[in-house]
């Protein structure tokens, strides 16, 4: 059965007052005094995440929710990112009914604008791009490259409906997202995900599915994948997350740059002290989901810890950005469904595939981990650059939107990219 899609239906975000009031009542009733005083009195600085979310940050989040935070304000911010739509996608194998995909389009006023798909992962959402999209679509400098920004919500995230069948993997997600992009009329586009960019040509794109965009010779979407060994058919290597089993030889390490060595060391540290959530999301997603869905504050702390911990220390994420990011999961009822891809049962390693399309990698200096340049070049035969930026962490679009916009413009300006976009 071929994959088909409906005409995009306009959509706007509006959470019912009763839902907001219910959450506010739960927050008002929360009292830190009920917690173990020995834990809360332990002197832990707000920058020390060795034991999880520091209590001082948790208290700050709760206090802001109790007084000062305005959901309606950020609802307006989200609605103004661009035009929101819902696209019904049918024909995905295993799905007995159409999947609802939420997608945002912010078109530039410039006729020479290039389409770009901005993809998120967990624990992110389309909200990550509320600062980046305006910079790309309407650059202050008329000499800067402009972009038509397309921002999908992955199936099961926020306002996209979750899959109903078992066996969902990156390819199915990619198929659904690409169908929604095509429904907006885009045939060829660039694609970006946090730190990686490439070309797209009516092929799948999305979280954990960068590798599914490589079948067409002009396709490259470089999306964050938790582990390379969890790749899917039509695949390519991920340039950020390295497989935990990857152990370079001493000879290989001797030829690596300091930044490549740092990426390996960061990966080893992440596996040791930062990957507990990964194991939980993979092995007991229903338990995690039920706990988070039963308590808005539990969800806030679980998601907030990742946003604060994975950002660069100097980035100082806005407390309202953290609250809004978490509340999107809570209000949309997608706390459990966003974990589904962690347990996708059809992971296959296709890291041996060679990719012959223009691709690039830029990572924040404080990101979690990244693959060595030599490993990336083995698979990406047209890797235009591999660079570690001087600033930023895991959420560049939120932390350093101007920096990321510059990287994207540089990529779009390359002759290899222009030729691929203009080729038949």
From TrEMBL:
SUPFAM superfamilies: alpha/beta-Hydrolases
The Epoxide hydrolase N-terminal domain, residue ranges: 9-129
Keyword entries, A-Z: Aromatic hydrocarbons catabolism, Hydrolase
Superkingdom classification of source: Eukaryota
Any one GO biological process: epoxide metabolic process
Signal peptide: none
Cross-referenced InterPro entries: AB_hydrolase_fold, Epox_hydrolase-like, Epoxide_hydro_N, Epoxide_hydrolase
GO molecular function: epoxide hydrolase activity
Family matches, as PANTHER family: EPOXIDE HYDROLASE, EPOXIDE HYDROLASE 1-RELATED
Sequence similarity: Belongs to the peptidase S33 family.
Protein name: Epoxide hydrolase N-terminal domain-containing protein
Organism name: Collybiopsis confluens
